[in-house]
Write a structure and sequence with these properties.
Blueprint lengths: L11 E2 L11 E5 L9 H13 L3 E5 L11 H4 L6 H6 L6 E5 L6 H21 L4 E10 L4 E5 L4 E8 L2 E5 L10 H10 L16 E5 L3 E5 L5 E5 L4 E9 L1 H18 L11 H24 L18
Antiparallel strand pairs: 1-2, 2-10, 3-4, 4-5, 5-12, 6-11, 7-10, 7-12, 8-9, 8-11
Helix pairs in contact: 5-6, 6-7
Length: 310
Amino acid sequence: MADTSDCPARWLDVGARQFDPWRVTPIRHRVHEHSLLALNKVIALGTRLEDRCQVRTHSDTAAAGTPFNDAPRLHPNRKTAVDTLSDIEHAAAWMSLLNIQTDPEYQSLVDTVLDDVKPTVERLDPGMSYRAGWIFVTSPRAVTPFHMDKEHNFILQIMGRKRLYVWQPDDTVAVSEAARDLFHARHNRDLIKWRDELRERALVFDLEPGRGAYMPSTSPHLVENGDGPSVTASFTYYTDATRRNSLLHAVNHRLRSAGLDPPPIGSRPMRDAPLYAGVRTVLGVKSLVRRAIGRQAVSPTARYAMHQFS
């Protein structure tokens, strides 16, 4: 008889009738039951990814207001991935295994989870691409500093408990429009600043195995680990809408740099549509030129964020 332990009827329950790709949503799941997320498997994966420089880590002295991009430098964790992951309860560290889809075993896990929700996503938010997976292994009471990301994200608790604070993706009190423009233009988070009064604006999720949240692109978030060690997995992707918004934010950043005050993305659809069409035309020409001179041009609709098997 075939082993069906890793083939439940559904990995994620996203509430298909209520799902809104641009609103933060609580999620129930069964991903914590998957054999590839057992701690011994995660340790082995960490060893492989560390060899490829696909591990990010900082110590548990980082705080909510620590600049996210600089946390590994400001609060270094000098232990190896194996040493950190093997004794995460006492490692006093936060560690992320990056782009797990570059590993053949874990690429199949990323596809399994995202294929499960793809029909719901595509109905409302077509163009799923740049799939990726991330595993976060965290010591007691360690913090993931306040930040935001470009991708849509299903964040799922696998082991232990943590508290997730999330702000809606259009909350410009939490993160200003100018900060979003800079982030999309340069992946620069310098204008994303933590203030303790933001807590009262947040959606708060107390995560445990089987629970998670859906965070749309550019949803600011902060994570505080519980009193024990924790493992969390994120499954991320881009869509036609996230790519469009990112390009428009980048254009707005250029306009701001020229001394102009552009309207927020989405506030003037009649302005956004032709602007986006023009930017896409320019980028398409640049891509053709790169190919003509023999340089690699990465498709914005590639299936995976990276594809690197060793």
